[in-house]
Amino acid sequence: MTPLEYLKENESKSLDQLKDLLRIPSVSAQSKHKDDMITCANWVSDYLKNLGIKPEIMETGGHPVVFGEYHASDDVPTVLIYGHYDVQPTDPLDLWKTGPFDPIEENGYILARGATDDKGQFFAHLKGIESYLKTVGKAPINVKFLIEGEEEVHSENLPPFIEKHKEKLKADIVLISDGGQFGIDMPAINYGLRGIAAAEIKVTGPDRDLHSGSFGGSVANPINVLAQMIAKLQDEDGKIAIDGFYKDVYTATDWEKEQFTKLPFDAEEYRKSTGSIKLFGEKGYSPLEHTWVRPTLDCNGITGGYQGEGAKTIIPSWASAKITMRLVPDMTPDDILDKLEAYLKKICPDTVTLEIDKMGGANPVQVPTDGPWLDAAAKAIKTGFGKEPFFTKEGGSIPIVESFKIILGLDTLLVGFGQHDDNAHSPNERFLINDFHRGCRTSAALLEELSKVKA
Known about the structure:
The protein has two domains: 3-193 and 364-451, Aminopeptidase; 195-249 and 295-360, Alpha-Beta Plaits, CATH 3.30.70. It has helices at 3-9, 11-22, 34-50, 115-133, 158-164, 212-215, 222-231, 254-262, 267-274, 287-292, 333-347, 372-385, 399-408, 433-451; strands spanning 54-58, 65-70, 78-84, 104-106, 109-111, 142-148, 173-176, 188-193, 195-204, 210-211, 298-304, 314-315, 318-327, 353-362, 365-366, 390-394, 412-414, 430-432. A six-stranded mixed beta sheet has the order 1-2-6-3-7-17, with helices on both faces. Strands 11-13-9-14 form a four-stranded antiparallel beta sheet, covered by helices on one side. Strands 4-5-18 form a three-stranded antiparallel beta sheet. By secondary structure, the protein is an alpha+beta fold. The two termini are 29 Å apart. It is globular and about 85 Å long.
C-alpha cells in the first residue's frame, strides 16, 4: 500500500481523529481554559508518540510548545512544520449552529472552532508523515514539528523560544499551513506577505475641555486639527503623501504580474463581497496589486471629545488616532514610522502639541520564486489536489514568518488548505472535508518532493 492509498483508505478514521482534537476547548486567551491548553498539548504529543516520533512538551513564558522530530537520514533536507493548537474565543455563542467544540458535518464541511484555524490544517501534516510511517516504514525527509499554543494571542513567547532553541530548530525550509486557497478548487501557494507598522498619534490643545460658546473660535479644536492632519496623509488618488514613503517600495516583477493575470479575479464580485458601493485604491493599480504589492496607510480609529448620548458643547482637550501602514519589500517599520513622525511634525500647527507612540510592526516577507522549494510545493499540490496551484500573495502579516527568517535564516512555504470564507475567528468556523483530505495527500506528496531538493 502506498502512502496515498493509506490516506484514502483511512479517510473516515482521519476525520474522526480530527473531531477528537476539535473537541478540546484550547482557547489561549482565556485563563479558564488553561487546563484545556495542557490537555490539547498532551493530545498532540501523544499523537506524535504513537507515530513513533519522540515528542517534547516544552515550556515558554505562557502556554507550552509541542516539539517533535523525525530523522530519516543525514543526506536529505529537513523541513520544520509549524502550526498552532490554540483557538480563538467562541463568542457570540448564540450564533453557532452547534456547540463550538461539538464538531458536526454539514454540507460537506466540518463545523467547529479550530477546524480550519489551525487544527485541521496542521493535523493534515501529522497525517502526511503518518502515511509513510504506516506503509513504507520511514519518511523520505527529516521532519521537525513546532506546534505552539499562543498564535491567537500574538505568539509573544515564540520568538524568544526560537532564539533559545536555534540549534534544535535547525532546518532547511519552514512549512506553514494556516491560510487559504485562492478559492474553491483553486489551490494556491502564497509567496509573499506584507509587513505592518503601527502608531498612535495624539494632539492636545487646551489643558481641559472648554465651553464651545465661551471659547470657540479663539483656541484650536484638537479634533478639527487631527482631522485636517489625517486628511493630508493621502491624496484623492490614494497616494500617500508622507515624504520619502515610496523610496524603498518593491516593484512587482514581470513574473508576478503574469501570475496575477492568470487568477480568476472578478473585481465586481470582490466589490460586492466588501459591501462597498465602489472600490477605491491608488491610481494606476488593480485591486490585487492594491492588496498584495502596494503599501497602504489606514486610520483605524479616532477618539476625542464627548461620545455620550445627546449634545455636549465643548472644545475637547485632546484627540487621538490609531494608524497602521501595510509595507511591501523593501520597506521597514522603523524607517516608515520615522518618516511618519517627521511628516506629522511638519504639518502639525503650532496651536496644539503632538505626541506619537510608535508601536512597531513586522517586516514584509517574500519567498524566492525562482528556487526549488516553490517548485516542490507546486508538484505536491498537483498530486494532492489534482490541479496546478496559483501563486498568490497576502495583504496581511504573519510576524512569526519574519522570526523564522531573522532568527533561523529560513524561508517559509505558505501552503494553505482552507478557504477565505471558512469563518475563522467567527461563529460556525468550518473546513471543507474534501480540502482536509486533499491537504493530507498534499502533505504526503510534499514530503517526497522536498526530499529531492538539494539543500
